[in-house]
Amino acid sequence: MPDDRTDLDREWARFLAGKEPMLRFGRSLFRFLPSPPRCKLCHAPFRGPGAPLMRLIGKVPWERNPRMCRFCAKWLLKKGAGGAEVEVALVFADVRGSTGLAERMAPREYSALINRFFTVVTDALVRCDGVIDQLVGDEVIGLFLPGYAGPEYARRAVEASRMLLTATGHGDPAGPWLPIGVGVHSGVAYVGSVGSGETFTDFTALGDSVNTTARLASEAGAGEILITEATARQAGLEIPDAARRTLSVKGRTEPLSVCVLSGGTLPG
Fold first, then answer.
1. What does DSSP assign to residue 172?
2. Least CB-packed of 1, 74, 179, 189 within 10 Å?
3. Which residue segment(s) compose the domain that 162 sits in?
4. What is the C-alpha separation between 138 and 10, in angstroms, rounded?
5. Could you give the CA distance from residue 183 to residue 39 in angstroms, rounded to a whole number?
6. From residue 134, how far is each of 75, 130, 141, 148, 222 by CA, in Å?
7. Which residue, 103, 93, 106, 108, is CA-closest to 138?
8. What is the pLDDT of residues 145-174, one digit of tens each?
9. Whether residue 71 is found in the same domain as residue 164
């Protein structure tokens, strides 16, 4: 255990940079084993053919947070609650009109629909080397850290968003099987553990960049990806002028310039 706060922050920075050998090895190996749901940190599968092997090495859902495996949780607890400010790209995906959908569907039917949504989102994030931050209600949050997704982490975030639209049927002549809107933004966020005392309850991102991405997702229409202009440039996207929009976002004094990708014809 580090002797002071500075050393702990350095260890977290190393972890988030993808330089921790244990996590790097796990993510490179387990990503090829089916199937979701997976540990949000090491990608160990909790179901499918690989699950029995994972259980033998302690990679089972953690009792206090089933989105992590018990192995990773214990490893993080040994480090101590903490984190670091790092560059990150974020993806927020929201179901549009979820309240109306829930009113028109039986609870079991609605639950099956949302679970199907979580499955395709998890697949897209994992394939693009994202970290699953939250699967809550009708919303999914993904983190793209340079240490895991590589130097083109912003582009990987956009790729995952495009996969989400395709996987939910946007661009299909028959229409989507679930209408979603997506927000993508990059910037500095505090990424690490949150909780109280000697234990932590989750691994997440906090800060203005996170709030901005959430507001983008709330402004996106069904079948739209709203990307901040700076993030679009970082991702190397060629965006026509017609696909630009200026938003007055709650909580920000200055308007936000965004690029809009929609439907099945998404420029690269």
1. -
2. 1
3. 83-262
4. 35
5. 23
6. 20, 12, 5, 17, 21
7. 93
8. 888 788 999 999 999 999 999 999 998 889
9. no
Percentages helix, strand, coil for the chain (3-state, rounded to 5) are 40, 30, 30
Instruction: Report how far residue 216's alpha carbon sits from residue 184's, in angstroms, rounded to the nearest whole number.
Output: 7
Quickly state the pLDDT bin for 267 (edges 50, 70, 90): very low
Please check whether residues 13 and 134 belong to one and the same domain.
no
In DSSP terms, 132 is beta-bridged to 142
Same domain, 222 and 166: yes
Tell me the pTM: 0.81
- pLDDT, one tens digit per residue, over 32-87 is 888 888 887 788 999 999 899 999 998 998 776 677 788 887 776 676 677 889 99
What are 175-195's pLDDT values in tens digits?
999 999 999 999 999 988 776
Residues listed for the chain: 268
Does residue 268 belong to any structural domain of this protein? no
* CA–CA distance, 185 with 210 (Å, rounded to integer): 8
Q: Please enumerate in sequence order all residues whose Cβ is within 8 A of that of 112, keeping only pairs 6 or more positions apart, or say none.
A: none
